[in-house]
Write a structure and sequence with these properties.
This protein is of the alpha/beta class. It has 9 helices and 7 strands. Helix 1 runs parallel beside helix 8, helix 2 crosses helix 8 and helix 4 crosses helix 5. The longest helix is centred in the last third of the chain and has 22 residues. The radius of gyration is 20 Å and the shape is globular.
Length: 248
């Protein structure tokens, strides 16, 4: 059964993550927690499919601030002309390095803050530009990336650097080159993407560790409760007040 093959592969990656990445998770969490205790803020940036995963989720931090840039070209195709680009190509702007500075200039980040940045390959000009621009502005950079994938591809950024090469801390998602994990005869390309699942695993391991470090320091952070539980909305209102008072 192909579903069983995928589950075996993904559970193997999770086991590998547990065996190999817990110290990296702790070091990244320590950077984040120390910054929070010093009065700084945490930000999250992801250009992939999991960009909303840790945001406003039950068990997640109120003090994690999502950063996103939306760029959409909307143009009706004139009669008699063929489209130059597919819809996906038309909306793809990660090859535009100069947009990174625009994003950061319009954001609320400040020196001393921590940017948690997710990128499977960590090679695109915009993606690397955001990380480099954050560091230039005095932020600490925590990167979640797939090292096997990233080391096998060339950077497209003008510096020649990939995201993991400029980070203060790196957590390896352990997804394979090309993301998909096994072959099915007749398909012609591997199937079963892994980076989404591994991003969720890594993010929640990191969020859990940050929360625990802060709690152990006597400064438990504001955390969301599921609104589907009794009293969920009321609990979250109290947590929002705590967050606004302390900043975390």
């Amino acid at each position: 059964m192909h579903a069983a093959r995928y589950l075996k592969a993904i559970t193997g990656l999770i086991a590998s993550f547990e065996n190999q990445e817990l110290e990296a998770v702790h070091q990244a969490a320590k950077i984040a927690a120390d910054a929070v205790l010093a009065g700084a803020r945490l930000h999250h940036f992801d250009t992939g499919h999991m960009k909303q995963e840790p945001i406003r989720r039950a068990g997640g931090l109120l003090g994690l601030h999502h950063l996103e840039m939306r760029l959409e070209v909307d143009h009706i195709l004139p009669a008699g002309r063929k489209a130059k680009l597919t819809t996906m190509e038309q909306q793809y702007f990660y090859d535009r390095e100069e947009l990174a500075d625009l994003l950061l200039e319009k954001s609320h980040v400040e020196a001393g803050d921590v940017l948690i940045q997710v990128s499977n390959s960590g090679k695109e000009p915009f993606t690397v530009g955001v990380g480099a621009g954050a560091k230039k502005r005095g932020l600490k950079l925590v990167v979640l990336t797939s090292m096997e994938f990233s080391k096998a591809v060339e950077s497209k950024h003008s510096s020649g650097k990939k995201l993991f090469e400029i980070a203060d801390a790196v957590i390896d998602l352990r997804a394979p080159m090309g993301d998909a994990v096994f072959d099915i005869p007749g398909i012609g390309t591997p199937v079963g993407a892994t980076s989404g699942v591994m991003t969720a695993v890594a993010l929640w391991a990191l969020m859990s560790e940050i929360t625990g470090i802060l709690a152990d320091a006597g400064q438990p952070p504001a955390v969301y409760r599921s609104v589907n539980l009794p009293g969920g909305f009321e609990f979250n209102r109290g947590q929002q007040e705590l967050y606004e008072e302390r900043g975390f």
